[in-house]
Amino acid sequence: xxxxxxxxxxxxxxxxxxxxxxxxxxxxxxxxxxxxxxxxxxxxxxxxxxxxxxxxxxxxxxxxxxxxxxxxxxxxxxxxxxxxxxxxxxxxxxxxxxxxxxxxxxxxxxxxxxxxxxxxxxxxxxxxxxxxxxxxxxxxxxxxxxxxxxxxxxxxxxxxxxxxxxxxxxxxxxxxxxxxxxxxxxxxxxxxxxxxxxxxxxxxxxxxxxxxxxxxxxxxxxxxxxxxxxxxxxxxxxxxxxxxxxxxxxxxxxxxxxxxxxxxxxxxxxxxxxxxxxxxxxxx
Length: 284
Known about the structure:
This protein is of the alpha/beta class. It contains 12 helices and 11 strands. The chain has helices at 2-17, 28-31, 40-47, 49-54, 58-61, 65-69, 71-87, 92-104, 118-121, 195-210, 229-237, 266-280; strands at 20-25, 107-112, 129-131, 134-141, 150-151, 159-160, 165-166, 180-184, 216-221, 243-248, 260-262. The strands form 3 sheets. The chain has a 6-stranded parallel β-sheet with strand order 3-2-1-9-10-11, with helices on both faces. α8 (92-104) runs parallel beside α12.
């Protein structure tokens, strides 16, 4: 307990003096919003009983071959997730991060493996975000007809929650009329159109060049080791002399030397840090 309190105080002081911030977010960031935790087959099957009956693990279900083999099941899975993300309100931790950025005029960028679009809904600008695994809020043509990635805002998918199968008509390409798929990087996915993510990455690199001489921090929330893209990115970002890493994770909390580890859930840690920051601001 004392170690956590000291780490929180050290983290709050770093946030107070930061001029630039990278917010790294993995699946654990969404759990406090009520989104399911797919950690291990049991967690995934608890969220999707029809898939449990098929005995499929997450990495087997999140595979593009289902769009050719069984498109109603493929869109049942991704359509259910799209509807879930739309109907779920991002938790207060998103707002806390955005308020820190606004109040301190920090140069900020978000690097997330989540495909739910919740950082945009919390007020972060699209040009401030890299969705390294794509987004369920955007679609691409399976036939690769040349149609650019398009928004899923007008897309509605009706899903039978008992069978997890989608009803026809399934989402289709506005150019050729063939089946569409989410613009999400899946397992064993050689057909993902990375153009949108590449554009986001270029924006990030431009922002990095502008903050090279700034006092920087990386705040990583809920990023696990199974797919360690976010962890590696935050560690690399924080490897410079003028940058520190704050890792928030209730399980996989080991950190490089000189970094701060907070063995807490995301929302809990952000609320505690926010309270500390308010207490550190001098009264006017």
